[in-house]
Amino acid sequence: MFTKSDPISRRTILRGLGVSMALPWLESLAFAAGDKTNAANQPPVRTLVTFTGMGFHSQHWWAKGEGAGMELGPCLKPLEPWKERMVFLRGLWNEQANNGVIHCMQTGNMLSGAPMSKTEVHTGVSFDQLMAQRIGNRTRIPSLVLGCEGPIPGLQDGHPLLYSSHISWSTAVSPTWTETRPALAFDQLFRTDRNRGDRRVVDAVLEDAKSLRQRLSLSDRQRFEEYLGSVHEIEGRIKRADKQRDANGWQPTLTAPDRPRPADGIPADIPEYWKLMNDIVLLAFRTDTTRIATLKYCNDGSAETHTHCGAKDQHHQMAHTQPAELVTLNQYFMSQLAYLCERMSEVKERDRTLLDNTSIMHCSSMLHGNHDSRQLPIILLGGAGGKLRGGRSLDYLDKSNRRMCSLFLHLMDWGGLELDQFGDSKERLTGIS
Fold first, then answer.
1. pTM
2. What residues contact residue 74 under an 8 Å CB cut-off, 6+ apart?
3. Residue 167 three-state SS
4. 301-337 as b/e: b if 16+ CB within 10 A
5. Count of H helices and E strands in the chain?
């Protein structure tokens, strides 16, 4: 329990039995040192990469114009309210991803630009994990790597399908563990003892929270209460999702299961599942548990059938055949980013918002499902701490430098890691900052 003599700062941790819980950004704590201009008291810039496989409808992924007059193609329509916070990038590519024409050989170097072996698993360290290794010690968790679909095993034409399932790589031969279970992803943020799952996180830190609340300003108390409430609400949804799946959510193809159901808490309902993962990223950033995250909504080559969007075929099949229904599915993907923008914009951090202090890159490993990776569909969202200006469409297709790794140098700059080179690039893109 805190006392009046205890120093408090952004690093203050709420503790309880089996639980460690970081604090959100609060002005009372940020100014504890008495210097409102000190760079250490500025809200940090977060880096988020989101990914959906197999590109978008080939006729409907586009943007043109600037600012409020910017026009968005049908695939991007859910981002209409956020177009002035968005930068649409055309023409970027990973040259090494064009040495093969199947999905796995166009995905494994998505965030590294490195050459990929066709006979064994060997690619390169992704830029998010390089950030985690170099500056991840600034937070309790160096990076958070989440996914909404498990890995694809085996080979395709002798090529490792593991490439299709991972965009985040810790070494050239080791993809970063991608957590697909919301409950365990949540545990990464808050639990120090995973065996104590019978008590809510907020309940466990209640005494510390009561003591700290008395030392906050009136406005910070409201933020603090909202934060505790959101943690409590999301954890409740995770528990309810697990119970719902027990009752009627998971429908096996067998008459009776041939093995016990894994207690992993994955909702059967895809929209609820993806929303939970979005909310866990938001919590991770709000608590400063990590500043680096990747969220892979689906694999490249995904066999998921999105019946909630009216789809009758698997995503992979739709990506190839390009039916009109694919636009609806693509819009669902973009609605995830719109949700993140909305939630982040609600979180105040001094004179900015969490969205202002985040750089979001959404990417896919090909322009459309017929394996066209000569240019990649890329958008940026957020403000990167005031360093990224939205409402723009930038075309690099005919530029001498259109390397994805040149964009990664910008993202690392904004996140606090400045390098002279990364992957196949020694120069940054023109016109981004």
1. 0.84
2. 57, 60, 327, 331
3. coil
4. bbebbbeebebeeebbebbeebbebbbbbbbbbbbbb
5. 11, 15
Residue given tokens 């954890």 in the structure block:
235
**Burial 392-413, CB ≥16 within 10 A → b, else e:** bbbebeeeeebbbbbbbbbbbb
pLDDT tens sequence across 236-289: 767 666 554 444 442 322 233 232 322 356 888 999 999 999 999 998 898 888
Q: Write the single-letter amino acid at 306.
A: H
Q: Are 349 and 25 spatial neighbours (Cβ–Cβ below 8 Å)?
A: yes
* Token pair recorded at residue 268: 């059967």
Pairing of strands 13-16, 19-22: antiparallel
Q: Is 317 helix (H, G, I), strand (E, B) or coil?
A: helix
Q: Which amino acid appears at position 345 of this protein? A: S
Decide: 48 and 58 in contact? Cβ < 8 Å. Answer: no
Residue with tokens 């209640």: 206
Q: Do residues 339 and 275 lie in contact, with contact meaning Cβ atoms separated by under 8 Å? A: yes
Whose structure tokens read 């120090």? 192
Residue entry with tokens 């490439």:
163
